[in-house]
Amino acid sequence: MNVPFLIAKRYFFSRKKRNIISIISNIAMIGVAVGSAALIIVLSVFNGLEDLIREIYSSFDPDLKISALQGKSFETDTEFMNRIRRTPGVAVVSEVIEDNALLRYNDRQMVVKVKGVSENFFQQNEIDSSVVEGSSELIVDGMYRALIGRGVQYQLSIRPNNQFIPLQFLYPRNTTFNPLNPEGSFNSLNISPAGIFAIERQYDDSYVFVPLNFASELLEYGSRRTALEIKVAEGFRIEEVKRSLQQVLGEEFKVQNSDEQHTSLLRAVKVEKLFVFITFAFILGIASLNIFFSLSMLVIDKKKDIAILASMGATAATIRNIFLLEGALVALIGAAYGLTLGMLVCNLQQNFGLVSMGMSTSVVEAYPVKMEVTDFLLTGAAIIIITLLVSIRPARKAAGMSVTENV
């Protein structure tokens, strides 16, 4: 029989009288409940945002991306490409040339990212499903076409259905600049708009997709490529194919999965989540100070009980454990209510979207949430540690009381 727990439970559930001690205990329990519920909700929102980022970029990013470890481009040939295609798990290999260029349309101009892609690009990419106007076909009847981001369209007032006004791309030639003939220092190619895509602002405001040969001629890349994008075959794990490709290519190349292509953004979300956890844990600590005050007052109120227990042979450790368990009951019951409330709110948000993003241009209407077991475990661990810290001093004070002074 656990005597300290039985006595602590009796102190906690005693309803004989309502005094300031029980009021402070209830306030502490409510504070822990609200704090733990808020922590679970906020952490779940960060988890949802992290998944939302992956979902948004999944329509643009390949399963794996091969690029040069140093420099922005690398040479390719038939043997090099065949080595990659023969790697187990590689289903599609798309060649990519990407660089900045000046885009003119009518009397407007802006710097854009030109992304030249091979014909099999849309076999592994879902950008064609994000086309909001026109078509995603980059070659029509042997004529080159461009797929333009919605932000670029707005900036230049491009009309995809108007084939009489072409897009003009300018790129510096690899020659000495001639001030007498500045236009001769740039490659200039025209192309007609095919359609408009809308994925995410980062891409919509800067990207223009063109056929690979068009980009190669404009940018003078020849057989060089800035990246190779890989679609992993069904039944193969992305990480296994990544390791195989890295062994085939050697240390001169880097092979990145989808998360690694956005390392800085995802890391920023994780760092923000960490700081939010620390901040809310601090708030929980402040709320738990009420446990300290209620236990301190309980120790004073139960001086005679402590003396009786000590005279009956209870050790200092037993008396200390009574008050440690009393603080644990207050905190854990409050945490149980709080975690249940947080789970309920998150479920309601998932199913009914109670809180809107508040922006008409949002990818999703309501804040995304995703509950993870690790968040509940971390929250529980934080509450246990905080409760132990605030309860240990009153418990020690009770264990150190003199029997003769309290009889």
Structure description:
- This protein is of the alpha+beta class and about 400 residues long.
- The protein folds into 2 domains: about 5-60 and about 265-405, no CATH class; about 65-255, no CATH class.
- Helix content is about 50%, strand content about 20%.
- The strands form 2 sheets. Strands 3-4-10-7-9-8 form a 6-stranded mixed beta barrel. A two-stranded antiparallel ribbon has the order 2-11.
- Strand 6 (about 140) and strand 7 form a beta hairpin.
- Helix 1 crosses helix 10 (about 315-350).
- It starts with a helix and ends with a helix.
- The model has no long low-confidence stretch (mean pLDDT about 90).
Task: Write the H/E string, N to C.
Answer: HHEEHEEEEEHEEHEHEEHEHHHHH
Which strand-content bin applies to the residues? 15-25%
Large-scale geometry:
elongated
Give the number of domains: 2
What Rg is obtained from the alpha carbons, in whole angstroms?
32 Å
Q: How many strands in all?
A: 13
Content-based structural category: alpha+beta
How much helicity do the residues have?
40-55%
Strand order of the biggest β-sheet: 3-4-10-7-9-8
Low-confidence parts lasting 5 or more residues at pLDDT below 50?
none
**What is the average per-residue confidence, as pLDDT, rounded to a whole number?**
89
N-end to C-end Cα span: 27 Å
> Sheet bearing the most strands, described?
6 strands, mixed, barrel
Output the number of helix runs.
12
Domain MacB-like periplasmic core: 27-247
Keywords: Cell membrane, Lipoprotein, Membrane, Transmembrane, Transmembrane helix
Pfam families: FtsX (PF02687), MacB_PCD (PF12704)
Subcellular location: Cell membrane
